[in-house]
Amino acid sequence: MVEVPAVAIQWVIQTTPSNIELARLSNVSKRWSKEVQSFTASYPNAMMPSLLLPSLARYVMNMDEEKRHESEHPDTFCATWLHPNGIQTVPVSTSPIQTNGSHLSYGKGRARSNGENSSKHCCFEWRGYRNASQVLSPFGYSKRFVDGFMAEISGVDCSGKEEDYQLTTASVRGATFARPEAYCPCWDTNQAPSETSDASSKEVELRKYSRLIRQERLKLHHRQLLPRAIQSSLFKDPLRPLRPGKRQPSVQLLNASGSNAVRLFTPPFNCGPLSGPLTIACVAIATEDGCFLSGLKSRCEFGHLYPQREEENLIDMSPICIAIDGVTKKQDQHSKKNTGRNEDEDDSSEDTSKDEKRAYSGDSSFACDCSFNSKGELEDADAEGEEQKPPDYLYKGKRGPGEWYCYVAIIDGPCSTIRINGADESVSHFRNEAFETEELALLDGLTIGSDSSFDMPLCFGEGAIGEGDGAISELVVFQGRLHQNDIKALETHLMEKHGITATQGTRQFLQQEDEWRRSSRALIEQAAPFEMVTSGIPLRSVANDYTVAWDRTSKVTGEKINVARIGSRMSTGSSDW
Q1: pLDDT tens digits for 251-282?
Q2: Peptide bond preceding 529: is omega within 30 degrees of 0, i.e. cis?
Q3: How far apart are CA 354 and CA 377, in angstroms?
Q4: Bridge partner list, 82
Q5: Nearest-CA neighbor of 445 among 276, 314, 268, 223?
Q6: Is 540 helix (H, G, I), strand (E, B) or coil?
Q7: CA-based angle 556:233:95, to the nearest 5?
Q8: Are 511 and 427 in contact (CB under 8 A)?
Q9: pTM score, whole prediction
Q10: d(C-alpha 28, C-alpha 13), whole Å
Q11: What tens digit of pLDDT does each residue of 420-468 get?
């Protein structure tokens, strides 16, 4: 058998366009695996910029930040990957708590009546991947190969210790965890951080009392701030609703009692703000309009937002969209210079002090200076009484909310696209002519479950069960535009993991069903004089609307929802009048 010359193998490696194809080359044989390792480690700049493996080599070999940002080869890397098994939970009582009425209320929405004396499992932290093999395995790389490659490029161990999970690595450079709003890691210590050994007895007593107050406030924070941890629905196939899929841990962005919508934050990205192109994947469900994710202070939103038609305004079921505020080249250059936080850096800034007041209700004994609270003061349009301006650029698909989907957003200026369950959406582009900016997104961190100003939360603490109850199960952000084959491999990995069926070949049918479902909702919601006209809607679409359906299950969790019967005194009984 003729042996392939080394130079031929190296040429194939150098011209490989996608991660999945490079992974296949590394799996051919031991010789090919060794050639891929050595060539990528030796000549990373000679390979395609969309490949993750050469990006790892460039990052490790050019650890100096100025060299990295002066490089002519833009890095493609994972900024964050929050996965289902990283959801950390704590039981939270939903029983009424007697308070003096002086505590603050967080979140949005009206109270939902709940007379149950029980507890809910809530998420106090969402941890993500840090290991190179975890990030690269969906593209076909073996753990053995990745570990050998990381050893070749200076012996860097990206696995990290368990206690270092909050620190970023060469494999995940943005953020490795997320926390609920105003619930930073300092709450875990359960002590005032300013306590010293030479304090007087009076000061010690006061601090002991402060800790007791802190414990009570912690319980209150658990009830008000932590989102629910749930299991996703077993049935996620809209074509075959009785076909079982897979259940995965998920975060439902409602607090324990269901009275308020809540959200999570990552710290500001340690690698600095990301500028487009970006590749974002999200396994989630929205039952009404809401935002899956956005920046901390920058507008880079992805969700069911910004209704364009009167019908969409009426029913709050807008198609999926990407909304960004463009930036000038000067702003982009400034953002690249401010590239995250040094671990030894002094965090005492004016913005941090404002966040301390927000996080700890103005009590100086609970003030903290951790990096998690360094995002600066949040801009809340409602609080300032100002109407939020429309986005500079809007990319709108066709599919509305209502099912568990594997969403993918590729944010790349005029070439931006949206994919749902492995199929491209028909995307319409809109531009705000009032603003002259570059069509370039900036993502400085993640606000999960809402936009940055909390105007469009994913959930609502009001209405009947099953309304406004969105959830997110997995969230991935890559800097750079991944190759089309890599996007398909990532989608396949996520859909198999969550039991979601690909819709390739059935996209038009599903879009039509979705359009009928939203038109049915609009027909029912319209007010007199009932002027809405449609081209015809199948009876099955109208009969399945939640306001008239006799048999209902939650799309989010798959649990049975009790439906009030006509003429029944009790919501679970049959007609007995």
Answers
A1: 999 988 888 899 999 999 998 899 879 999 99
A2: yes
A3: 6
A4: 128, 475
A5: 268
A6: helix
A7: 60
A8: no
A9: 0.81
A10: 12
A11: 998 899 898 888 776 666 667 789 999 999 988 888 899 886 555 656 7
